Amino acid sequence: MKLTSIHAVPLAYFLEVAERGSLSAASVSLHVAVSAISRQVARLEAELGTALFEREPRGMRLTEAGLVVQQYGRRAFLDAQTLQADLQGLLSVAHSKVRLACTDGFARDYMPYAMALFQRRFPGVSFSLEVCAPAVATRMVREGTVDLALTFAIAAQEGIEVAYSEAAPVYAYVARKHPLAALKRASLKEVVAYPLALPSETNTIRQLFDLACGVEGLRPRILLSSNSLSALVGYQAYTDAVYLTGSLAVRNNLRAERRVLVPIASRAMQQRALQVQTMAGRHLPPAVRAFVEWLAEDIAGRRRAVPDQPARRRAGQPQA
């Protein structure tokens, strides 16, 4: 399918060079001669009247204009695929694949629940799920590798449209008999008085936690740091360690795991947002659009139904 304002072949070659970082790498990927790719990229630059790459000894680096064209190109090809499938009668909510990314916390329980429930309504829909760090999920949306991401953000993200967003408070996730479980709200100082099991540094909770501890001059005792939620929750089952999490990731497991969520009274720990992200300006296929809308409605409903916590009392000091 031809694109209107920019020819498809030069744009496709440009995107491959941008992705691979050099003409030679793009040549191997496309099985096209380097000279042919170079001519098409030069043609595109001539048509646009600007340089799209900085030619360097070890490869090609996108200019500011090149970054803009890259974003346009990704969106244009995705829209062209959507239009072509629609015209051929292949695109409907009932017979589509939704590509999505989410963090490990959502992959453990919430996203399987969401996908299964959505498929009850639309049995013909299939999913592919990538589990990764928040920044990686956002990058995959921006690059068009996935259709949407359920992830966290601390700041605005370029090239991303936020379909849904809400504040994502951080909680201490502890056993019902843990001293913190008696508190209606815990200060960060009260939390770090106990041993911790924390996500690795790529996690937004960990980033905020490290920053907040630095500001308050706190020195936490971290027994385990991992990029695996399963490992952290599994480890916690055998220890009294405190785990920090958002509510959506563990809400369905509170009763089964006999644990409670204790809000943390720290402004620095409340600076992230839970977001459903899509590519800015992209025309979403019907199934993707329907699932985005379903996610937004479900998450908003869960925010209004935070599980009841047991009656609270002031906690005693941790044992030495």
From TrEMBL:
<dbReference type="GO" id="GO:0003677">
    <property type="term" value="F:DNA binding"/>
</dbReference>
<dbReference type="InterPro" id="IPR000847">
    <property type="entry name" value="LysR_HTH_N"/>
</dbReference>
<dbReference type="InterPro" id="IPR036388">
    <property type="entry name" value="WH-like_DNA-bd_sf"/>
</dbReference>
<keyword id="KW-0804">Transcription</keyword>
<dbReference type="GO" id="GO:0005829">
    <property type="term" value="C:cytosol"/>
</dbReference>
<dbReference type="Pfam" id="PF00126">
    <property type="entry name" value="HTH_1"/>
</dbReference>
<keyword id="KW-0805">Transcription regulation</keyword>
<dbReference type="InterPro" id="IPR036390">
    <property type="entry name" value="WH_DNA-bd_sf"/>
</dbReference>
<dbReference type="InterPro" id="IPR005119">
    <property type="entry name" value="LysR_subst-bd"/>
</dbReference>
<comment type="similarity">
    <text>Belongs to the LysR transcriptional regulatory family.</text>
</comment>
<keyword id="KW-0238">DNA-binding</keyword>
<protein>
    <submittedName>
        <fullName>LysR family transcriptional regulator</fullName>
    </submittedName>
</protein>
<dbReference type="InterPro" id="IPR050950">
    <property type="entry name" value="HTH-type_LysR_regulators"/>
</dbReference>
<dbReference type="GO" id="GO:0003700">
    <property type="term" value="F:DNA-binding transcription factor activity"/>
</dbReference>
<dbReference type="Pfam" id="PF03466">
    <property type="entry name" value="LysR_substrate"/>
</dbReference>
<feature type="domain" description="HTH lysR-type">
    <location>
        <begin position="1"/>
        <end position="63"/>
    </location>
</feature>
